């Protein structure tokens, strides 16, 4: 099959990906693939698992262990910027689920085929000419992580590819099924964790600063950090959607927060089939790879009920009937299938640039001022918002996307929908649907075309909306009943883990229709425990992106994730004055009675400019020269940046680590979302650090520079060498 798969891939690149890239950004209008050859080495299926238990009799579920290691030649060109780049090889490893359903009593026996990844596959790309791409506006954040996020938007659960084999199959139902259930996770406390912190070069043993990463499929949550505590109490609650529970687990990893690489404290995996059987688990679980460590969890399996018979009881249980609050535990799940729109108004130029105006082409027929919009749909319930993908240059867009919202109280909340033009941010129409209307509908479902307000006379939006009440079935158990929940061992070794970064930037609404659930900390039955150093009261759920990256902000987290800012970072050397003191001491040792040069700590070359079109500050870290050496082999430098006064972890940007060199070359581009008037009141804090040096965590400060951004030349930008100093307060510019 491989030669024919290659033909399909080439067609996909040229007919689907290339037009989408061209339409995504004006700078990429001349983008094209000059060569697409994925090589002769075919995709391999290393193993197949077939599920025979806990599956519907009218479906077949297969898990395929796939791997692809190919020497490909994919060349691209952006003629406007005379830029050429490409990919020499690609590796993909992951578990792909194939579902054959429904099984029918007529040929071809299978009604449809659905394909998706249970979790993000491992992706490695060998680029050529990547430095050229980083100079192109709109591509400066390109990376394997970004591409993996794009793949997730299409192929990682709950997203899927569905191929109907018979016309009678309801394609929308197959492509976006209703979740099997909701898992409510009470992340309560841990005991007897290991102390990973050390002081005085390891002579003094300390405690740990533990936090947890919780994963259910493609949904990722992060707890708050408890400082210096081996028996932390979090008392937080998360709610996650479960689409495919055969083979899906609840994964929890504990880490000790450190300035650089966080230390692993233990993990556990729990089969969700067992949780569904038990309905309610309130247990202490033994952590893997930790001698005595234990984790207290309370797990609730919530079924989705298509009627409102139990709604009042559910509202009372979560205290949603007491006030008008829209935060807290959820009583229902809203499932929305966005199908298509018809007869959207044309865009009239230039009036659509006026803020708040609705743009119609009526009255201007015959004039060539009209153009088709680039429509997208923004949906919100309370403060939780989501956004569809963009459909370019059409007044008859088809989305076929699925969205979900956790609902606190459907009796008091509304679904607000607005169709907008992406290019001019004009409203093309809107509507408001009280969720109480669904409570009175048959099967709590509405499937129809809705007429848009403040739009064209015949403008409609087709959606299917379903409300499901979250119900906890409490089973009667004998006093001596023993549950059968299984704790699985992780398939990834501790050495092979990616250490997570605790938070990602909170950005503009994303384009993904993913279903990461919001966290609801502090709402459990256990009362929060006061800590000596108070943490933010809410946890920080992460969008489904690579946890190891914090430098890119191209792809936004799902807009319905109520992302809270985590604890202010303690990784900044500003908060560690000992780093500056050690650096000054090292300078005195280097001087050793002689006079050091004008730049004793070396220099760093930066390009700094503000893009008004993207409303971002762009910083390119080119290279450093003449850095000080930490050992006979030199140093292992990397660059860390903050846009002061913001020193939160989400505002941190870091380059890769250059090994054993005093003259590292990075050529990495970063951006900060900030307006020009605002950025001119800010200061760029740039620190060159050693990833393995003195200090307790094998890190050290190599030098700093503080760059004031109150310059009229910021819009044009500049490239300069800056002197590094021990505290960054007296930089000298070398032009």
UniProtKB/TrEMBL annotation:
Q: Which GO terms describe its cellular component?
A: endoplasmic reticulum membrane; plasma membrane
What's the protein's topology in the membrane?
A: Peripheral membrane protein; Multi-pass membrane protein
SMART domains membership:
C2
List residues of the SMP-LTD domain. 1-166
- Amino acid composition bias (Polar residues), ranges on this chain: 503-519
Domain C2 span(s) in chain numbering: 165-285, 310-454, 600-722
Has the keyword Ribosomal protein been applied to this entry?
no
Location relative to the cell? Cell membrane; Endoplasmic reticulum membrane
A GO BP entry: endoplasmic reticulum-plasma membrane tethering
Q: Which residues form a coiled coil?
A: none
Residues of the region (Disordered) are: 475-574
| Gene Ontology terms for molecular function | calcium ion binding; calcium-dependent phospholipid binding; phosphatidylcholine binding; phosphatidylethanolamine binding; phosphatidylinositol binding
For bias type Basic and acidic residues, the affected ranges are 524-535
User: Residue spans with biased composition (Low complexity)?
Assistant: 549-561
Question: So what family is this one in?
Answer: Belongs to the extended synaptotagmin family.
Q: What does this protein do?
A: Tethers the endoplasmic reticulum to the cell membrane and promotes the formation of appositions between the endoplasmic reticulum and the cell membrane. Binds glycerophospholipids in a barrel-like domain and may play a role in cellular lipid transport. Plays a role in FGF signaling via its role in the rapid internalization of FGFR1 that has been activated by FGF1 binding; this occurs most likely via the AP-2 complex. Promotes the localization of SACM1L at endoplasmic reticulum-plasma membrane contact sites (EPCS).
Tell me which PANTHER family the record gives: EXTENDED SYNAPTOTAGMIN-2 (PTHR45761:SF2), EXTENDED SYNAPTOTAGMIN-LIKE PROTEIN 2, ISOFORM C (PTHR45761)
Subunit and partners: Homodimer. Interacts with ESYT1 and ESYT3. Interacts with FGFR1 that has been activated by FGF1 binding. Interacts with the AP-2 complex; identified in a complex with the AP-2 complex and FGFR1.
> Which protein are we looking at?
Extended synaptotagmin-2
Supply the source organism for this entry. Answer: Cricetulus griseus (Chinese hamster)
